[in-house]
Design brief:
Elements: E1 2-3, E2 6-7, E3 14-15, H1 18-31, E4 36-38, H2 58-62, E5 69-72, E6 84-87, H3 92-96, H4 108-124, H5 126-149, E7 154-157, E8 164-167, H6 176-187, H7 206-230
Parallel strand pairs: 1-4, 4-5
Antiparallel strand pairs: 2-3, 5-6, 7-8
């Protein structure tokens, strides 16, 4: 079985629950199946204490789930092109039988970036992921409050460290309001994507979140004024 803790490609990202994560593990054990987990976006970012080491964990472990193979990338090298496939002993022989190669696999820069990130996460322990979750929650709450203040119904979804905002009256593909809002927020100094979830970094600060909320407030106000003029 192949799955992911958060389906971030939906209009509103769908996050797995603890009963689902644990239930899949029980089914896999009953039928002798392997679980392959896509934590490319969520590992090191949306989990608990186990997500701060180069080991199976991340958001799935925080939900009480387990897997035989874990795919991770993104935060592993802080934007550098690197990924890793880690797993349990039972999956070692099967994984070793697969031939894979690449042109840039021996590049030292991504390896150095990954070591720096892993060492930084190891030094800060669970405080790093807790910090990201706290900032993400503050961002989501602030955006929801700001939107309501200016007459917009929005949904902030995804794990706190991977938030995403959608306007409730827009569909999954055409998002002119979200695109304009994000462009206005960007003009205020913070870059948010209208079609892709966002990422909170351990390097972000409360001041960064404050500046982003200030830019978002201005953007909601501008859209609200235009709505009144055109209405």
């Amino acid at each position: 079985m192949t799955t992911t803790p958060t389906n971030a490609d939906q209009h509103c990202p769908i996050t797995s629950s603890a009963p689902l994560a644990q239930g899949l593990g029980e089914l896999a054990e009953r039928f002798g199946a392997l679980i392959v987990l896509d934590e490319i976006r969520t590992n090191f970012r949306a989990g608990g204490e186990r997500s701060t080491a180069m080991a199976p964990g991340g958001q799935w472990a925080a939900l009480g789930g387990s897997a035989d193979l874990y795919c991770m990338s993104k935060a592993l090298g802080n934007g550098h092109p690197i990924a890793a496939l880690v797993g349990t002993e039972v999956s070692r022989d099967g994984a070793a039988a697969v031939m894979a190669t690449g042109t840039y696999w021996l590049s030292p820069a991504p390896m150095a970036a990954a070591l720096a990130c892993l060492n930084g996460l190891a030094s800060h322990g669970a405080a790093a992921t807790a910090h990201m979750a706290q900032l993400g929650a503050a961002l989501g709450e602030g955006l929801t409050t700001s939107a309501a203040r200016h007459g917009f119904d929005v949904t902030v979804s995804g794990p706190p460290a991977m938030p995403f905002l959608t306007f409730d009256d827009e569909g999954p593909h055409a998002r002119p309001l979200a695109e304009r809002w994000c462009a206005t927020v960007a003009a205020g100094g913070s870059w948010l994507h209208p079609h892709h979830n966002w990422y909170i970094s351990a390097a972000h600060t409360e001041e960064d979140i404050g500046r982003t909320l200030q830019a978002a407030e201005c953007a909601f106000r501008e859209l609200s004024q235009d709505k009144r003029r055109s209405g």
